[in-house]
Specification:
The protein starts with a helix and ends with a helix. Helix content is 55%, strand content 10%. Strands 1-2 form a two-stranded antiparallel ribbon. The chain is globular and about 35 Å long. The chain has two domains: 57 residues, no CATH class; 40 residues. The longest helix has 20 residues. By secondary structure, the protein is mostly helical. The protein contains four helices and two strands.
């Protein structure tokens, strides 16, 4: 699994000033994730704690299901539209370079 999909989240979280950072495993090691660079991102320690308070020990796929169910009223189309727009804007910005 590539961390590119999660870079936008890591950038947002790292915008908060902090004195301490923490390593976050995208797929928790207890759920089969490993410690390689594709599965680990550096994150603000406080935000890391808040992340796990909200999402517990869920995998990225389980987090998306959680968000769809509890925040987006079961509308899976929201996720697909968001990801599709993200891909479009990525290709548009790389084509303009």
């Amino acid at each position: 699994m590539s961390t590119e999909k999660y870079e936008f989240l890591a950038k947002f979280l790292n915008q908060v000033s902090s004195k301490k950072d923490s390593k976050h495993h995208i797929v928790p090691t207890s759920r089969g994730g490993n410690g390689n660079s594709e599965n680990v991102v550096k994150i603000n320690e406080r935000l890391h704690e808040l992340y796990h308070n909200l999402f517990l020990n869920r995998t990225p796929e389980e987090i998306i299901e959680f968000l769809v169910d509890y925040f987006w009223g079961g509308d899976e189309g929201f996720v697909f539209n968001f990801l599709e727009e993200k891909e479009r804007s990525k290709y548009a910005s790389s084509a303009s370079k």
